[in-house]
UniProtKB/TrEMBL annotation:
GO terms for molecular function: DNA binding. The keyword Nucleus applies. It comes from Heracleum sosnowskyi. It comes from the Eukaryota. This is NAC domain-containing protein. It holds the Pfam family NAM.
Length: 205
């Protein structure tokens, strides 16, 4: 399977073609200054849907772990994502259980994630909606907002071919999400401590 626009250069912040990601392990051939950075649409099409259908994913830089949203960032081994940027990881996970659709907070061990932006549309090149992205912010036990963010990408059933859309697949579409957890990049005074992300962070605060 061919993958494109999955690597980005830290110097130009522009995505480049990355067929190499799908053809072989990228680590030994990754140019300096480049990193793994799939867009929301790629996370859904090349990873989430593949997992749901029981097919191989494009790269093992997206990990499988249940209920990631119930964990604090400190409980995740983000160092294992050797092709991603520091303090950034990608997961296919079972979604956190919520009592109602209106519930915006997800409890972790001692703290919580809270939605800061919900239901951003994810579209294909033909402008067809096939998924949604929710952005959550991590809060300390005392209610203080942190700079940790979680992007939860979910798929719509229409993205799966009709012949493969069984009741089991529909249930998995409801059950699973593709997530990116990262330390939000911010600017402090005139010095750039971290600069803004691309693709995944458009229109986020």
């Amino acid at each position: 399977m061919e993958m494109t626009k999955v690597l980005a250069s830290s110097s130009s912040e522009k995505h480049v073609d990355a067929k190499v990601v799908a053809e072989k392990e990228i680590g030994d051939n990754l140019p300096p200054g480049y990193y793994f950075l799939p867009s929301p649409s790629q996370l859904i099409q090349e990873y989430l849907v593949q997992k749901i259908l029981g097919l191989p994913m494009a790269s093992d830089n997206v990990k499988i772990m249940d209920y990631v949203e119930h964990l604090d960032p400190s409980q995740l081994n983000l160092d294992e994502f050797k092709y991603s940027r520091d303090n950034e990881g990608y997961y296919i996970t079972k979604k956190a259980e919520r009592k109602t659709k209106e519930e915006t907070s997800i409890k972790t061990t001692t703290r919580h994630w809270k939605e800061s932006k919900s239901n951003s549309q994810i579209c294909n090149k033909g402008s067809q909606i096939f998924g949604y992205k929710n952005t959550l912010t991590f809060y300390e036990a005392n209610g203080k907002e942190t700079v940790w963010r979680l992007n939860e990408c979910t798929a719509l059933p229409d993205i799966v071919p009709v012949h493969a859309l069984t009741d089991t697949v529909r249930a998995k579409i409801e059950e699973y999400a593709a997530c990116r957890i990262r330390f939000k990049k911010v600017k402090l005074l005139e010095e750039i401590i971290y600069d803004e992300d691309v693709e995944m962070d458009e229109d986020e605060d």
